[in-house]
Structure formats: structure tokens, C-alpha cells
């Protein structure tokens, strides 16, 4: 199995955990990523310590609170593929998050180093930038939860919906060099969901210019692909719609990338 593929546990642990990626387990510096499936009435609590955190309500309805604020009955979509923009709770470092599941709930916990610049807040559906990107068989729908123009210390958090038969993160691009302003180093995770889930799959390639890294990875529903370097396009086979949640972070919070020159002509 590829070292870039992190499989879902399939069955949630007692605390609801399905995925647990830390900087140590990924062998990188910035991103932590966890997924939890909570039963109605179950709670999730975690201190942020030196990390800022974005908790995305992937499906279901919850009450949420930080040390100083409370948000009640948030979360509208009961299934990711309803494509309703998600509710997300942003929590700075030296704070805490508590989630109480009002229904069956799936949450994604996105972490990166925090500086305490911003207060805890709710990012509601009305705050999410929704746009179509690409054309033809490269078209997908982007939900910008924490894009570059929204406040955060390190985190980028983006949802992407790719129709079956289309390509995404395409033409291929990379952001693995600390060469600002031309390019910045950003680690990235892809949390994949597939509809229908039981038979579906997607394909993600991760490769560098010199091909010292060149992997083609088959992903199933609930899998994560970590991208420490290289180009990283994704393909959704016909008949299987693809969702992924992107988390990015690095030393500079800006999105400067380089296209694969072999395929850059597709931008025209």
C-alpha cells in the first residue's frame, strides 16, 4: 500500500474516530487531520493547545462551543452529496472545542499551527464561497470554507465536488517549494468520499518532476491521500461522484503554485 494512502478505520472507535493523521504520522510539519463519526447524543471534546482548528460538520446537526462562545443546532446537510455548504467552527490556539451530536454526525477536525490572531467563530453556509472551476470534463464545484481571503493563521479548508467522469485538481499543479512569491510550500490532505460508496473508487496520482515520487493511488470511500510534495491530480470514474475535503498549511498562508508545464496548455 502506498505510504501516501491513509485508510479509514471503517468502523468508528469508541470515541468515534475513523481517521487520525498527525504531523508525526505524516512525517511533515504543519497539518493534523482527524475524522469522527458520532452517534446521537455523543460528544467530542478537544483542547487546541498550540494549534488553530477548523471543525467541519460534514453531515448531521450539532451544538458546538468554545471556551467563550456557543452555537446551537448547526448543520443542515444530512449527507455530504446534498452539496449544501457546510457549517464549520473555527477555534484558535489555547482554546477548546466541544461538539454534541444532535443526530448521527460526521465531523472533520483540521489542525495547523496557530498564533491566536483570530477569535473563535462560526463559518456558516452564507460565508462559504461557492464557484465552478474548470470546464468540460475538468469542471468541479468548489466550496471555499477557509480560502486565502478568509481569516486564519495557517489553515486553508476547501470542499470540492467532482462529477463522475471528470478530473479535478487538474491540470496538475504543485506547491512544494518555499520560493515566494512564485511558489510556497503547502502540505495538503485529501479526504475522499464517493457516491455511491459501496462499489465506487477514484484515482489520484502524486508525482514530482524528476519522478523520484510517482504514485497512482486507488482510493475508496473514506480514504485520505497525503500530499507532501509533487503534482496531485484526481480522477472520478464515470458513475461515481467524488467529494474531497482539502486541508492545506505551510509557513506562509498564501496559495502560490506551479502548473505542470506538460499540461499547462489545457488552461488555455
UniProtKB/TrEMBL annotation:
<dbReference type="InterPro" id="IPR014710">
    <property type="entry name" value="RmlC-like_jellyroll"/>
</dbReference>
<dbReference type="InterPro" id="IPR011051">
    <property type="entry name" value="RmlC_Cupin_sf"/>
</dbReference>
<dbReference type="InterPro" id="IPR021120">
    <property type="entry name" value="KduI/IolB_isomerase"/>
</dbReference>
<dbReference type="InterPro" id="IPR024203">
    <property type="entry name" value="Deoxy-glucuronate_isom_IolB"/>
</dbReference>
<dbReference type="GO" id="GO:0019310">
    <property type="term" value="P:inositol catabolic process"/>
</dbReference>
<dbReference type="GO" id="GO:0008880">
    <property type="term" value="F:glucuronate isomerase activity"/>
</dbReference>
<protein>
    <recommendedName>
        <fullName>5-deoxy-glucuronate isomerase</fullName>
        <ecNumber>5.3.1.30</ecNumber>
    </recommendedName>
</protein>
<dbReference type="Pfam" id="PF04962">
    <property type="entry name" value="KduI"/>
</dbReference>
<keyword id="KW-0413">Isomerase</keyword>
<dbReference type="GO" id="GO:0102482">
    <property type="term" value="F:5-deoxy-D-glucuronate isomerase activity"/>
</dbReference>
Amino acid at each position: 500500500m502506498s505510504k501516501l494512502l491513509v485508510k479509514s478505520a471503517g468502523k468508528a472507535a469508541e470515541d468515534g474516530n475513523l481517521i487520525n493523521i498527525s504531523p508525526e504520522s505524516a512525517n511533515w510539519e504543519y497539518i493534523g487531520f482527524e475524522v469522527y463519526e458520532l452517534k446521537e447524543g455523543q460528544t467530542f471534546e478537544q483542547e487546541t493547545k498550540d494549534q488553530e482548528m477548523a471543525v467541519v460538520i460534514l453531515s448531521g446537526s450539532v451544538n458546538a462551543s468554545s471556551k467563550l462562545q456557543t452555537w446551537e443546532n448547526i448543520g443542515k446537510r444530512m449527507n455530504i452529496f446534498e452539496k449544501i455548504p457546510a457549517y464549520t467552527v473555527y477555534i484558535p490556539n489555547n482554546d477548546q472545542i466541544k461538539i454534541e451530536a444532535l443526530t448521527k454526525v460526521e465531523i472533520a477536525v483540521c489542525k495547523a499551527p496557530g498564533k491566536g490572531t483570530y477569535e473563535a467563530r462560526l463559518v456558516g453556509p452564507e460565508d462559504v464561497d461557492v464557484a465552478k472551476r474548470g470546464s468540460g470534463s475538468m469542471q468541479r464545484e468548489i466550496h471555499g470554507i477557509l480560502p486565502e481571503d478568509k481569516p486564519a493563521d495557517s489553515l486553508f479548508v476547501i470542499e470540492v465536488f467532482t462529477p463522475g467522469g471528470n478530473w479535478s485538481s487538474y491540470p496538475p499543479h504543485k506547491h512544494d517549494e518555499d520560493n515566494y512569491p512564485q511558489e510556497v510550500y503547502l502540505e495538503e490532505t485529501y479526504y475522499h468520499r464517493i457516491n455511491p460508496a459501496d462499489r465506487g473508487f477514484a484515482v489520484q496520482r502524486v508525482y514530482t518532476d524528476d519522478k523520484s515520487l510517482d504514485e497512482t493511488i486507488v482510493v475508496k470511500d473514506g480514504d485520505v491521500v497525503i500530499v507532501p510534495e509533487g503534482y496531485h491530480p484526481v480522477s472520478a470514474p464515470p458513475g461515481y461522484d467524488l467529494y474531497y475535503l482539502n486541508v492545506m498549511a505551510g509557513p506562509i498562508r498564501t496559495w502560490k503554485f506551479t502548473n505542470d508545464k506538460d499540461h499547462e496548455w489545457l488552461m488555455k
